[in-house]
Design goal:
Layout (H helix, E strand, L loop, with lengths): L22 H18 L5 H12 L12
């Protein structure tokens, strides 16, 4: 099997995004992760934490194509 180029999506159509946080944002993320993990009763992975946060935003949030007031 040929190696996948970095600009190609995997065959299943999934997309991967890597996010790096520094300083106070990284610290805050770890606080949120700890709080959510305690609520869930097990240690969440970083993608699980982000998934829960994004699910909590719902569809009422501003999209990248909408203008903010």
């Amino acid at each position: 099997m040929a190696p996948q180029r970095s600009d190609e999506r995997p065959p299943d159509g999934a997309m991967t995004t890597h996010i790096k946080l520094h300083g106070s944002k990284a610290h805050r993320f770890e606080e949120v992760k700890l709080e959510l993990s305690e609520r869930m009763g097990y240690e969440l992975s970083n993608p699980e934490v982000l998934g829960l946060l994004m699910a909590g935003l719902g569809s009422d949030t501003v999209t990248t194509t909408e203008k903010r007031p």
